[in-house]
Amino acid sequence: MLSEVNSVVIFVSKLLSQRKVASEMIDSFKEALRELLCTHYEDHWFPDKPFKGSAYRCLRIVGMQLDPLFTQAGAMVGLPKSELVELLPRELTIWVDPEDVSYRIGEDGSIGVLFDGTNNFVTVEQEGLRTPKIKSCKEQLIQCLQSPSSHSNSEVIAAVAS
What we know:
Strand order of the largest sheet: 2-1-3-4-5
Largest sheet: 5 strands, antiparallel
Strand content: 5-15%
Structural class: alpha+beta
Distance between the termini: 24 Å
Helix content: 40-55%
């Protein structure tokens, strides 16, 4: 479970780092989010049945509605919900399942892979080689930024593509 949680924490921290959030704040947020996710998933983690509990493990941001785990992590480190809403994409879904962590930015965005069951995080290059239907993170973010339902800030592209 820790590898899957770490992939989420790294992904979200990259998004925050591209929005000029202080590195100390990001580090504190990462630790708080890691602790909250591990606790939240503790009794809802079934490696032998990875789809069991998947809705419970899904993280969502829709407009001004942040997933409570993001809000709690922010509150733990002094980052209010009002700031998080401005810092994170307006539409974000992260599916956290045993040996598979995927995300989508925007309701019409392609699905990207953050973790594929190995101890390595999936890079943009690997993602393109594995499944042609999945666009690179950069292409996906460009498409999402053109959608009115997501942030119109090109800095988000660099967050995931790097």
